[in-house]
UniProtKB/TrEMBL annotation:
Transmembrane segments: none annotated. GO terms for biological process: respiratory electron transport chain; tricarboxylic acid cycle. This is Fumarate reductase iron-sulfur subunit. The gene is frdB. Keywords: 2Fe-2S, 4Fe-4S, Iron, Iron-sulfur, Metal-binding, Oxidoreductase.
Length: 249
């Protein structure tokens, strides 16, 4: 016999005058292959058209459907209900601005992150539209591919104790992003220049090492490895700058 599932879902529309945060329950019978994404759509289509949540791809690519499911940040489209108990609590991701119910604004957070960490190739080479493509060493390309798999869902930020208490911390996703450019031979920034950007407590040295980000990343990116890589480089750059007599703020 199929299980009865009860979904206890956070409801609150900050744009609706007088609305109050509350939990609302919906119940229906589980069926084969049910994901949280399908469950939420069923609730919205058949029980409550006002329920707000985000999705685009349904395939763990766009990163839009991240939410707290039974206390853990997860992608709704990648979470099968069969792996959860019959009572499922769903909350929006913390840290990000709430739009309504389960929908949060990760876009502004990630845009600010890209600007803050200067997430683009820095080069003095002049752009030549006729230049032939330059082949990258396979090993380096594979290394860069790891951090590039980030879908910017915000799960690592939501689960990070530092990001939850310090709004300027760039989180595992930010450090992962910076390490991607550090590995890229086309980026001509020196370690000292990177140090200016992430050699501080809002960057590579802000992590307190609980590593929930690495445990809960839906894409299983080795965030610990990226953090260790960026930290080693920034620690060496900091020491070099100090020996050179540069005042580090
Ligand atoms: S809908 Fe795109 S990651 Fe879930």
């Amino acid at each position: 016999m199929a299980r009865q599932l009860t979904f206890s879902i956070f409801r609150y529309n900050p744009n609706k005058p007088g609305d109050k945060p509350r939990m609302q329950e919906y119940t229906f019978e589980e069926f084969e292959g049910l994901t949280m994404f399908v469950a939420l759509n069923k609730i919205r289509e058949e029980m409550d058209p006002t329920l707000m949540f985000d999705f685009v791809c349904r395939a763990a690519i766009c990163g839009s459907c991240a939410m707290m499911i039974n206390g853990r940040p997860r992608l709704a489209c990648k979470t099968m209900t069969i792996n959860l108990p019959s009572r499922i609590t769903v909350l929006p991701l913390p840290v990000f601005k709430l739009i309504g119910d389960l929908s949060v604004d990760t876009g502004t957070w990630f845009r600010n992150l890209q600007v803050k960490t200067e997430s683009w190739i820095h080069t003095n080479k002049k752009f030549d539209p006729n230049a032939l493509e330059v082949r990258m060493d396979n090993k380096i390309a594979e290394q860069i591919y790891e951090p590039e798999r980030c879908v910017e869902c915000g799960c690592c930020v939501a689960t990070c104790v530092t990001a939850n208490i310090r709004e300027d911390f760039i989180g595992a996703t930010g450090i992962n992003r910076v390490s991607r450019f550090m590995m890229d031979p086309r980026d001509e920034r020196s370690d000292a220049e990177y140090y200016e950007v992430v050699g501080n407590e809002d960057g590579a040295f802000g992590c307190v090492g609980l590593m929930a980000c690495a445990d809960l990343c839906p894409m299983e990116i080795p965030l610990q490895t990226q953090l260790a890589y960026a930290r080693r480089k920034m620690a060496a750059a900091g020491l070099k700058l100090q020996f050179a007599g540069v005042k580090i703020s």
